[in-house]
């Protein structure tokens, strides 16, 4: 389908159409850090389950973070969240299992934001789930190894937020966590915003573009 811009109601409508199709459907929802992916996906999930309870599940990319010990050994702990700090092969493998009609219950990892670690096999997606909302920064990134996900989605969405708004939201996030100005500067200009530019400029064109301009992130 041709790329088109949608508001939230349009996003719900497009996702609802997927629930009417045979077989399991996957919607990939991407966006830069601070673009409001999690909030958007949770709102979308809440809207969809009013139509078909238990028919929708969320699969966040963040569950595939490398553990901090692995990142330390890689020399990449300060850049946690960059494209090379995720188990992309594991992500691809789980998506393939979720496509496999012979799989009845697939265990997926969940990122614990309180502990800042990924917990393996923390959630079960059963075979009666018809629609899976896959969300993450890099799921449309057109570079190896992320481009292995290219054929994983039936519909793709990019959340569009201007960089100055991303900066404002991300600064507020790190201030909320009590980081020092030096740490915030590293987070913003050393990691988050460069990662966001990669998402914006190096991702494949999505089917739908959603402009998320609310204050929630």
TrEMBL record:
Molecular function GO terms recorded: ATP binding; kinase activity
Name of the protein this chain belongs to: Phosphoribulokinase/uridine kinase domain-containing protein
Pfam families: PRK
Transmembrane segments: none
Matching NCBIfam families: PRK09270.1-5
InterPro entries documented for this protein: P-loop_NTPase, PRK/URK
Residue ranges occupied by any Phosphoribulokinase/uridine kinase domain in the UniProt entry: 26-214
Source organism, top-level taxon: Bacteria
């Amino acid at each position: 389908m041709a790329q088109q811009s949608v508001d939230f109601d349009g996003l719900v409508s497009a996702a609802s159409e997927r629930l009417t199709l045979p077989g399991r459907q996957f919607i990939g929802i991407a966006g830069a850090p601070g673009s409001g992916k999690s909030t958007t996906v949770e709102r979308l999930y809440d809207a969809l389950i009013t139509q078909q309870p238990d028919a929708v599940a969320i699969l966040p990319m963040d569950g595939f973070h490398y553990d901090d010990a692995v990142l330390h050994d890689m020399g990449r702990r300060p850049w946690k969240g960059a494209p090379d700090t995720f188990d992309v092969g594991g992500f691809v493998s789980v998506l393939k299992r979720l496509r496999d009609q012979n799989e009845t219950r697939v265990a997926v990892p969940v990122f614990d934001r309180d502990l800042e670690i990924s917990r393996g096999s923390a959630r079960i997606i059963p075979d009666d789930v018809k629609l899976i909302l896959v969300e993450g920064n890099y799921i449309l990134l057109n570079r190896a190894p992320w481009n292995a996900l290219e054929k994983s989605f039936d519909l793709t969405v990019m959340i569009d937020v201007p960089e100055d708004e991303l900066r404002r939201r991300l600064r507020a996030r790190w201030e909320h966590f009590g980081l020092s100005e030096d740490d915030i500067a590293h987070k913003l200009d050393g990691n988050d915003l460069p990662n966001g530019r990669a998402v914006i400029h190096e991702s494949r064109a999505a089917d739908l573009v959603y402009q998320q301009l609310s204050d929630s992130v």
